[in-house]
Amino acid sequence: MRSRDGSYNFSLSICSVVLFLFSSTLLNASDYLVSYRYVVKDAILYNETLDISKSMKKCIGEPTKSLILDSYENDDLEDIILKNSTEFIDFIHTLGLQVEHKESTTNAINKSTTILTLKTTCFEVDFNDNFARISPLK
Amino acid sequence: MKYSLLLVALLSASSLMAETPMQNNDMSTVSQETSVASQEMSSEVKEEQVLKKNEGIRISVTGQGVAPMNTNSPAQAYALAKRAAVADAYRLIAEKVKGVRIDGQDLIKDMMVKRSTVRTSVQAMIRNANIVETTFKDGLCEVEMEVTISHSQFAQ
């Protein structure tokens, strides 16, 4: 590792800086599993669930269209999403939702239930100082 | 006696011959009716949109949703009603694209309808649906949503 001019410490420090930058970029990009479901009964919102969990193993796939959200110097994805819930839910709609609708009319009395579901999807999240980039993996 | 029998046979044969063209006329009218019906059917089929290669079909629907009674603010009421309206719009798109499964049941007892039930269900996956317009008035939210479907999405 000794350099030609003999500055061993200098080359070592450059290597350590490069390693640090590489590891920090790797650590900042995390995989999260997100699922979303909401139930509408008789045209009124009945229940809404958004589940966010850090993935315990690396997800396989390529990041597709991404969403950039204000992170407010926060590294917690749940907090970031709660603060930008409208944008995130609109983004989820573009990814595609499973629609399940059941309706029954008994003696002219109508009851209906509609369930919209985003099946558990892996997202790659890059945390930065002021924003977080969220990209679903496909 | 023989001549009389022959005369009867001739008369019956002539009457049969006379009836046959009438039947033919009836048949022709029936065939005309069927052709008119088929023309009407074909005109109905022509009106229906068919998915072609290199041509998309835009489906536009308007979903409706109501705000719950116990909301803390008008903004919350709007947000909740919009969610319900979006779900309704998704359901309408699914109905148009994929169709509806319908199941009916009537219970009749002592010659009277005791219970009449109609069940409908839809299941679909909707992607790339866009909200065009949202209106909120008197607790009712209406969301106009559209989706463009293309031939390549259904090609196997």
Please report the distance between the alpha carbons of the first and last residues of chain A. Answer: 42 Å
How confident overall, as mean pLDDT of chain A? 83
What oligomeric arrangement do these chains adopt? heterodimer
Q: Please state the CA-atom Rg of chain A, rounded to the nearest Å.
A: 23 Å
**Could you say which overall geometry of chain A the principal axes of the C-alpha atoms support?**
elongated
Low-confidence stretches of chain B: 20-24
Which structural class do the helices and strands of chain A define?
A: alpha+beta
Shape of chain B: flat
CA radius of gyration of chain B is 30 Å
Task: Tell me about the largest β-sheet of chain B.
Answer: 3 strands, antiparallel
Helix/strand/pairing category of chain B: alpha+beta
Reading the helices and strands of chain A in chain order gives: HEEEHHEEE
Strand order, main sheet of chain B: write it out.
1-5-4
Chart the SSEs and their pairings.
The complex is a heterodimer of chains A (138) and B (156).
Chain A: H1 8-28, E1 29-41, E2 44-54, E3 67-70, H2 77-83, H3 85-95, E4 97-106, E5 109-127, E6 131-136
Antiparallel strand pairs in A: 1-2, 1-5, 3-6, 4-5, 5-6
Chain B: H1 2-47, E1 57-66, H2 74-98, E2 101-109, E3 112-126, E4 130-137, E5 140-149, H3 151-154
Antiparallel strand pairs in B: 1-5, 2-3, 4-5
Question: Could you explain the architecture of this structure?
Answer:
The complex is a heterodimer of chains A (138) and B (156). With 138 residues, chain A is an alpha+beta fold. Chain A has one domain. Chain A has 3 helices and 6 strands. Chain B is of the alpha+beta class and 156 residues long. Chain B has a 3-stranded antiparallel sheet. A two-stranded antiparallel sheet of chain B has the order 2-3. At the A-B interface, strand 2, helix 3 and strand 4 of A face strand 1, helix 2 and strand 3 of B. Strand 4 of chain A pairs antiparallel with strand 3 of chain B.
